[in-house]
Amino acid sequence: MRRAVLGWLASVAFVGSTLATAETPTLWGIPIGEYAQRRAQLRKLLEPDQIAILASESSPPTRLKFRQDSNFMYLTGLEAINGVLVILPKDSPLEESEVLFLPRQSRLSRLFEGPLPEPNAQTRRESGIEDIRERSELREFLAQALKVHPRALLNRPARTLLTDTLREANPEVQLSSVDRLMARLRVIKSPAEIALMRKAIEATIAGHRALAQRLKPGVYEYELEGAAQDAFRRHGSEREGYPMIIASGPNACILHYHANKRRVNAGELVLVDIGAEYSYYTADITRTYPASGKFTPRQRELYRAVLDALKYAESEAKPGITLAQLHQKVVAFFRNHPLRARDENGELKTLDHFFVHGLSHMLGMDVHDLDPNLPLAPGMVFTIEPGLYVPAEGIGIRIEDNYLVTEKGVENLSRALPREPEAIERMVGAGKSQR
């Protein structure tokens, strides 16, 4: 079984490398042929009685910017609204292998939302999908397809929008998620995907540098957020990959702190966890900065412990290890570290008591990308992010970089952003010298 899995991973990586080097038209920086290959790979993964049904996002509320569902985007490259992609298994008795259903755009929709993909020759040409039909034909098509393939695998929008339609088409239909199969496809990044992720990382590093230069006692967290956002846009990022975490002082002990409204005080640390999204691929980089430009002795020794844990995890990360195994190595590292800290009850504890989250996660179109829970293999991109959170001292420290798995180990894709304590102090000090 292990040999089969690794062989399958190698085949996916090979497909990506051959397609990404071809001089072909692209959507969002991905060759059109690569999207076709992804759909073909999903078709091969389906069992004979299964069918994959992936819906696009619908129009968002006016307060939100549209972002396509990641799985639908991965397979089509289209920012379609209210579309449905149907993929049938290999050797299906039906004539079709893949069909995309799109609505005709009304004059009012065109006025409010601009031109969108429709079932026409232009969309066929631009997407490389030959069989594109009117959305109104979907119900009849599903009524026939579900007789042969009664197990439907759905993405999130389809589970929300199409459940009633599917049960009307076949009351015996069995519904489940397509995420398990999509995770197997998405976990190995092609050269084209890695190029986009490098762009996202470049924009994120620019955001960190801009924020560090703006940092000083008295500034508000949202001002730092604005400095990072400005740098993101100047580097081509369409949006953030997730809400920014700009956590000063005690807020750094709140793992998913998003309010970003507190005033930074002298002598505090500011934990900054941000990621720019570039053409639907995101980065995820964390640094911890001293607001006054210098770490206190206690801050520095805890910062060094986190940095040493990160470097240790880097040295242990290589093909064949799992993220769970890597996490346990870092837990043991903190447990055996000579430093101690007191918990909220005043009890002296080893440092592993203050490492309260996972070490790593996959990275790609989503900040916590779909994960098939396989051992690391070349082409995977993931994070390493040890942290220590000591509420009794008002100290939260996290350092996070992004890594590409290679044949022999890992490449730190975000290595251009300093992380040594002296370099962090210089980054913050550079901003002070310019003011």
Q: Can you tell me about this structure?
A:
The protein is built from 14 helices and 21 strands. With 435 residues, the protein is α+β, with helices and mostly antiparallel strands. The strands form 7 sheets. The protein has a 6-stranded mixed beta sheet, sandwiched between helices. Strands 9-12-13 form a 3-stranded antiparallel beta sheet. The chain has a 3-stranded antiparallel beta sheet with strand order 10-11-14. Strand 15 and strand 16 (348-350) form a beta hairpin. Residues 1-22 have low confidence and may be disordered.
Characteristic terms for this protein:
alpha+beta, Creatine Amidinohydrolase, Chain A, domain 1, Creatine Amidinohydrolase, 2 domains, 14 helices, 21 strands, elongated, disordered N terminus
